Structures are given as C-alpha cells and as structure tokens.
C-alpha cells in the first residue's frame, strides 16, 4: 500500500499499528530517548549535499542505502518520518531515504509538536536489516540536471534573493537560475510544518501538476526541501536541487539572471 507524501496525526492514529508501517524520529537518538511517539525508532541518516559529479552522487546514494539498513529499514515498509514540527529535518531525511532506494516515504505534518497522542521515553533497540536496497541517485537533482526534461524551476527564496538585490555574502554571484519562477516557501504553508491545501499551492505555483515536473531550489537546499513536501502534497512530481544557489553561483560556467 502506497503512502501519501504527507500524513497528519489523525492518519497516523488510524494506521500507526499496522505491520508494514515504520515510524521514524529523525531528531536524533538523545531527543528520541527523552520523548517520542509510541512505536517509533530513532533514524539518523544525514542530509544530501552538493553533488559535484555523477560519481559523487552515486557514492552518496550507496552510503545512504547502508545507513538505512543499519537502522533496520528494508525498503519494503511504508516509512513515515517526523521531526520536532517544522519538517526541515524530516524533509532532508526523506530525500536521503529516497536516494538510498526507498520508494514509499512520507512525513508527518506538524511533527512531534502536532501529535496529540501518547509520548513515551526510553531507548529503542534497532536490528540491522539484511535486505538490499537499490540506490536511486536520480532521486535528488544535481546541477547538471536542473534544466533537463522541461521541468518547471521553482526558486523558493525571498524576492530580494531571487532578484539579486539581496542574498548571502558567501555567494560570488547574486541572482537566479534562468527561467526560474519565484514562489517564497512560507507562502506554501498554512502553519509551521503544515502545507496549505492543494488548490492553494497550485494557485501559487501557477502550473497544473500534470503539465511537467518541478525542480525546487533555494540558497542551500533546506527551504527547497520544505517546498518539496508542500508541492508533493499538492500532486506535483517534484525533486529538490539540494546544492541550490550556494553551489550554482560558484560554477562560473552556469548562466544566471537578475
């Protein structure tokens, strides 16, 4: 049974006890020990990075698959991830799980902060999985793929960053990827960690989900990871360019607009 990309507390309360559902807390083992949703395991698998070449991305994908196995994840289960509430860590872990080969991953809207049910404490033991996940490097967009396939490029930074009038001093160039559409990430959410209704998100994006895939980016991949969640919940086939403007601006051969 497939998962919706985003589930809420009511969905989890209904399905939480099902055998093929694995609930994972990505806040860290210490936070999990202090208090976690009943039945969840701690899952620390890192974040994607700037993939300078296909070989670097493939190596990371293989390592991501190993990290999943070390936490007992087989790839056969329905995997639901949660963090403290804003979904930043859950979005990053979701992308690592996908690049590691997992094809059935969701995040819990509102995370632990929005969970009205029981919270328990204590250490949860994890058994390593023997299953072989097949890494999927293509699950995360790299710089050489951003403009491929006619994707809608969505810049989710502030307008001043998009226009090149603002930005981070660590970046050698200020502006945006040519053809990118600017939709600031906060406008896609009704509250922290809770995406807006699908029709509202589609109106903001200004494109039908059936038309073409979407590639998101921001400055360093975190905000665009959040946008990824809202877009998928609204029906878009979306991937994140995790290197984002921090990487793009450093590659002088890549074009930009202001």
Question: What this model shows, in words?
Answer:
- By secondary structure, the protein is α/β, with parallel strands linked by helices.
- Helix content is 28%, strand content 16%.
- It has two domains: 6-136, 3-Layer(aba) Sandwich (Oxidized Rhodanese, domain 1); 143-248, Oxidized Rhodanese, domain 1, CATH 3.40.250.10.
- It has helices at residues 9-15, 29-34, 54-70, 88-99, 159-163, 198-205, 222-233, 244-248; strands at residues 6-7, 21-25, 36-37, 41-42, 78-82, 105-108, 119-120, 152-155, 181-182, 189-191, 194-195, 214-217, 238-240.
- The chain starts with 5 loop residues before the first strand and ends in a 10-residue tail after the last helix.
- The model has no long low-confidence stretch (mean pLDDT 95).
Features:
single chain; 258 residues; alpha/beta; Oxidized Rhodanese, domain 1; 2 domains; five-stranded parallel sheet; four-stranded parallel sheet; 8 helices; 13 strands; 16% strand; globular
Please write out the topology.
Blueprint: E1 6-7, H1 9-15, E2 21-25, H2 29-34, E3 36-37, E4 41-42, H3 54-70, E5 78-82, H4 88-99, E6 105-108, E7 119-120, E8 152-155, H5 159-163, E9 181-182, E10 189-191, E11 194-195, H6 198-205, E12 214-217, H7 222-233, E13 238-240, H8 244-248
Parallel strand pairs: 1-6, 2-4, 2-5, 5-6, 8-9, 8-12, 12-13
Antiparallel strand pairs: 3-7, 10-11
Helix pairs in contact: 4-7
């Amino acid at each position: 049974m497939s998962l919706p990309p985003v589930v809420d507390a009511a969905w989890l309360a209904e399905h939480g006890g099902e055998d093929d559902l694995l609930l994972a807390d990505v806040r860290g083992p210490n936070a999990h020990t202090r208090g976690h949703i009943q039945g969840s395991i701690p899952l620390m698998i890192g974040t994607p990075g700037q993939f300078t070449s296909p070989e670097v991305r493939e190596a990371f994908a293989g390592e991501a698959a190993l990290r999943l196995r070390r936490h007992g994840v087989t790839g056969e289960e329905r995997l639901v991830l949660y963090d403290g509430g804003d979904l930043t860590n859950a979005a990053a872990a979701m992308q690592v799980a996908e690049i590691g080969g997992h094809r059935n991953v969701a995040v819990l809207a509102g995370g632990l902060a929005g969970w009205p049910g029981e919270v328990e404490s204590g250490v949860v033991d994890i058994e390593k999985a023997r299953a072989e996940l097949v890494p999927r490097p293509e699950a995360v967009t790299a710089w050489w793929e951003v403009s491929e396939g006619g994707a809608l490029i969505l810049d989710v930074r502030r307008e001043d960053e998009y226009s090149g009038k603002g930005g981070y001093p660590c970046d050698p160039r200020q502006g945006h990827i040519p053809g990118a559409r600017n939709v600031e990430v906060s406008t896609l959410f009704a509250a922290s960690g809770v995406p807006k209704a699908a029709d509202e998100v589609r109106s903001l994006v200004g494109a039908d989900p059936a038309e073409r895939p979407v590639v998101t980016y921001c400055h360093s991949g975190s905000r665009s990871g959040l946008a990824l969640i809202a877009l998928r919940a609204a029906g878009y086939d979306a991937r994140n360019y995790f290197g984002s403007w921090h990487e793009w601006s450093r590659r002088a051969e890549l074009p930009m607009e202001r």
